[in-house]
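My hope is that you will study the protein record below before we discuss the fold together.
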Amino acid sequence: MTEATAVQTTVGEQIKQSPAVAAAIDTIVHETTTKCAQITDIREANPELKSSYDELLARCAAVKGRGLLYPYLASGAGNGALVELADGSVKWDMITGIGVHFLGHSNPGVIRAQAVAALDDTTKHGNLLSNFDAYGFGEKLLEHAAKGSKLKSAFITTSGAMANESAIKVCYQKRNGAPRVIAFKDCFMGRSVTMCQLGDSAGGRQGVPLSTQVDYMPFWTEAGVAAAGGEEKFIAQCVAQLDEFVARYPDQHACFIFELVQGEGGFRTAPREFFVALMERCKKHGIPVWDDEIQSFGRTTEMFAYDMLNLGEYVDVFCVGKMTQACATLWTEEMNPKAGLLSGTFTGNSSDFTVGNLLIDTLASGGFYGADGKFAKHFELFSQQVQALASRHPEWFPGVEGQSGVVGGVGGMMRFTPFGGDKDKIIKACKAMYDEGLICFWCGHGPFHVRFLPPLPVFDEADWPRVFEVVEKALAKVG
């Protein structure tokens, strides 16, 4: 290397461009993927590992103060939608950490991105001192967000709840400290003190002083539409309810929080007309529109749910997280906060950004979106499996009042409703599936549903029947 080259290239770049380092990373990726290729189907635990695994679970319970919901401790290996546990068992992962591991387990690209991140001199980036990685991630996210919206700036943070905290602070400041918030019934916003108060879950805020003032709006449901006498009348009633809140508390609302696809609320969405009517009313009253896509981002028939519904022009503040690894709050130029409002020690660690960038690039180039995209096809295949199961076992799928079918969701947000949506039976069904070799979860607030968030970019369409073999075995135990 010449002296001139040494001057023009940082030591950091020399490390990243080193042939020896590249070869080492290639070896890591090759060894990992070769060994993980052995994982091709579910399997039971290794009896010889039972005692050591039980000991680990007991240690976890001692740390946490209670036992784990599922006795799940991963080995650190898997293959796409299959994950290996530390007891040697292998299960279908149809929940992916409630949507975090969207590229599956032991993905070669993810392994490589993490290995590259390990070359950094520190593990964490912060708002005071940072490599470019956090800003590069935000730049890439904004590039795609701006295609269908006026979102212009981003603040990167470590969790979805903190992204939401940043969003509400931006709205509070824009509205001069207006103390009230409008949200939909059955929404979920996170676990921080403020977010648990915004979320419509009594259990999530039990014992927490209620200092945040929330006005809850009805969300679109078949039962609600029927009771109102049709879609137009239901929308009119909701607009009237919004106007009533504004008249009762003039200039007191900091924002209206929109989940365009409800997550914990039951994987429900609504027609564009419903959202437009409410968003236009917000614009009339000067109330910022906050779009929370922390669970839905990337999983619908477009990368952004606001693009799926053509609502980007209305969005003032936007939050993303989960599958992106790093989380972010985005806003328009008009909502740009004053200096000092948003900060924090950490934005994330290096692998959050290398894997987050890989995820966005994968979504943008994989043919996943649109009416004929891969995600829509997967949802169709999922629906076919549920319908076939219901045809074979109609006794497991009684009618649910106010719900016309047993399948719901959109794209990679999938749910089905056995046992009439009974909470206890749904939870038993999810735990039975875990025992049989499939990990899922539940959602909804009555009816309750079985929830899937599968790693669709790496999931083979031909594997849906294999997944539902496990589902059928588990439901038979409950039914």
